[in-house]
Design brief:
The chain is α+β, with helices and mostly antiparallel strands. The protein contains 15 helices and eight strands.
């Protein structure tokens, strides 16, 4: 009877030890199996959760059973609970830890403090860890994962402009352009001289259809960093597009504008004329030795015919002859938007006694 009880006890311990061995193989811990240190440390759990030997649900199941059998060496603070959940602990695993701690005596619980953590305990993830992993996820196009890690890095360092800049890029990758603008706003609030933040905010503004704000941000990026080639190229592109749009709008407005009553054709010459009549030099003007220029104001109809001719300057003896010549002349029709229109202009006649006598 005593011998069978002995064997039963040994088999029970053997089963427990086999379970503990499987857990220790899973977590890769160097803790030795012995009766004096049967409990699991925080390091054991973190290493076990990160193991790739079995799936995460299987890891959680094995660790949950191990905790129920062995217990833990630490107190479950909110910080430790959050770290376990981040590493992949299931709600069932966390509840098993909580129940096991509640059943144990407070005096035996080991409160794990970050500054006094055992050498074997992994360093908790810090700002650089989350920031680096977030940047890597952006590079891989995993924007949702990147945003989650940027959120953690910002919780740790809320005044770090680089974290907001990175999260803004991730939001841009998710096509959440309004959120990316808000992150770039925050980055510039912290560091107003960040050329890259102005460049990225300008790109987001373009996606939101606000070309004016985009152009302002590109200009600011170039002012802060003349070597920012991307900002310079974007600025030129958007300026050229704005100029082209303005020119097209002006042309469209001109096409749609009502035609004026007339156009001013300026000084009319032989190059404008269909027929240019030369004025006669009156005998009385010649005998009186009168010469000089006569300027005649003209009005033309849509066909280029002179409908009005009035001398504006010149000797009185020469004006009548100049006006008669102008009325008999004919010019190419004035044009507006490729359509003939009335016009106003001038002809300048030069009366010269020398030229007349040579004739």
């Amino acid at each position: 009877m005593k011998l069978s009880k002995f064997f039963s006890t040994q088999i029970s311990w053997l089963g427990l030890n086999m379970l503990l061995v499987s857990v220790l193989l899973l977590v890769g811990s160097a803790v030795q199996l012995n009766a004096q240190s049967p409990q699991l440390s925080l390091a054991d759990l973190l290493i076990g959760l990160r193991s790739k030997k079995v799936s995460l649900p299987e890891r959680n199941a094995i660790l949950t059973e191990a905790i129920r059998q062995r217990g833990v060496t630490f107190a479950l603070t909110p910080e430790i609970e959050k770290e376990l959940e981040t590493t992949g602990a299931s709600p069932l695993l966390v509840e098993a830890i909580r129940q096991k701690i509640a059943l144990s005596k407070p005096a035996t619980a080991e409160v794990v403090k970050p500054i006094a953590a055992p050498v074997a305990t992994p360093t908790p993830p810090d700002f650089n860890f989350y920031q680096t992993r977030a940047d890597q996820n952006v590079g891989k196009g995993e924007f949702s994962l990147a945003v989650a890690d940027y959120n953690r890095s910002i919780e740790i360092k809320a005044d770090n402009a680089i974290a907001y800049l990175g999260r803004g890029k991730a939001h841009y990758g998710m096509k959440s352009y309004d959120l990316s603008v808000k992150d770039f706003d925050k980055a510039l609030e912290i560091n107003p001289k960040d050329s890259a933040a102005f460049l990225n905010r300008g790109v987001s503004y373009e996606k939101l259809g606000d070309s004016k704000k985009a152009m302002e941000d590109y200009q600011k990026a170039v002012d802060l960093d003349p070597a920012n080639e991307s900002a310079k190229a974007n600025l030129k592109r958007i300026q050229d597009a704005a100029a082209a749009a303005a020119a097209a709008a002006a042309a469209e407005a001109a096409r749609n504008a009502p035609p004026p009553e007339f156009v001013n054709v300026g000084i009319l010459s032989v190059s404008n004329a269909i027929k240019m009549v030369t004025p006669t030099y009156s005998v009385i003007a010649v005998r009186s030795n009168v010469e000089g220029k006569v300027v005649v104001d003209l009005e033309l109809d849509e066909n280029g015919d002179v409908v009005s001719a009035k001398a504006a300057s010149g000797h009185q003896m020469l004006r009548g002859s100049a006006e008669d010549a102008a009325k008999k002349s004919k010019f190419k029709p004035p044009m507006f938007n490729n359509r003939p229109i009335k016009g106003k202009g001038q002809i300048v006649y030069n009366f010269s006694l020398k030229d007349h006598r040579q004739e």
